[in-house]
Protein: Peptidase S8/S53 domain-containing protein
Amino acid sequence: MLSTSHRLLGAVLAALVTLPVVPVSAVPAAAAPVDRCARPEDVPAEAPWPRSMLALDAVRPFTRGGGTTVALLSTGVHAAHPQLHGRVLPGFDAVSGRGPADTDCTGTGTQVAGVIAAQGSTGNGVVGVAPDTRIQPVRVVPDIPFGAVAQPAALTRGITWATDNGADVIVVATPLHTGDASLSRAVAAAVARGIVVVAAAGDLEASGGRAVPSFPAAYPDVLGVGAIGPDGGIWKNSPGGDFVDLVAPGVAVPTLQRGTGLVQVDGTAVAAGFVAGTVALARAKRGNLLTSEITQTLIAAASPTPAGPQYGAGVVNPYAALTAQVVAPSHRALPAVQPASPPETAAERRRRDLALLGAGLVLILVVGVLLATAALRRRSWRPGLAAPLPRPEEPVEPGPPVMLLDDLADSRQS
Structure:
């Protein structure tokens, strides 16, 4: 006989068996995480204005930047973007100190990578300055879509890692507004290794509207870059100062966005990307140039702009940077130099005075002789008249006969 507890357990089991079976798929799943990463926009398909302003199509016959590596210090790069296929290396996350940086939720790094190395394979007109270069992403900003800023320690680690891992060009898209001794040393070490460092000049909005220097743009031997629009006018938030060396397109620039599409962006970060791409072209075409010669070439080849501290030397000019000639200072012939005269002694002064005195006496003697000769010639000369011409005597003709005169008188009287 079953106990009371056994009867209760059987009743419960029977009730469970009679319950309807609910498919697993009908059970509400947990809400999927919201994708707050940057998204592409609807960007016009016509050729982007920077491509025309910088005459990028005229550069293609010279080089496409193959064989060079650009280390991009920003939020990372979305390596899966179709127009960056095969051009993005794993990179390094300098914020955490480990792992790659080939993803990009924020999108800033992918935007800069687009102006450097976009392949132009989707027919939207967006092509990078140096589409055959490699992008080495280095994350120096936390990859969150809420405007995180770079810290000196992460930026220093990123530059040091890029220096030690084969970078030909380093572009800092997210600068600081305060200097740092460790960062300065890292930049100097990169330059000493023959790496050209390019840095965005920052923006006035990020600095609270104050025209303060940005770093590393303000360090020696770094190309600081400001931003201009399609009309050549300076971007409203592009700062001015002696740390701005060049300007480049940085207003309404169509470029790549995380995912598969495009976006239009403003800022000195994408402007720095155009300059970094130009440096990659110069490295690929003229690899024999020193780092200082490449920077001097870009500055000397810049297209003219209105004078002012926001424009630097002018607009970056990729075509001129590849065709301009640079002569190394050691190859220039020095001008002829006259040897210095020895110091004059007392004996030299006496000889000089005697020579001048002798020359003066000879001159006086010569002048005296000339004057005396002229005076003698005047006394022996007299004016005269030409002799009269001879006059021959005229013969005396005889008069008429007297008889003829008498006959003529008789005829008149009769």
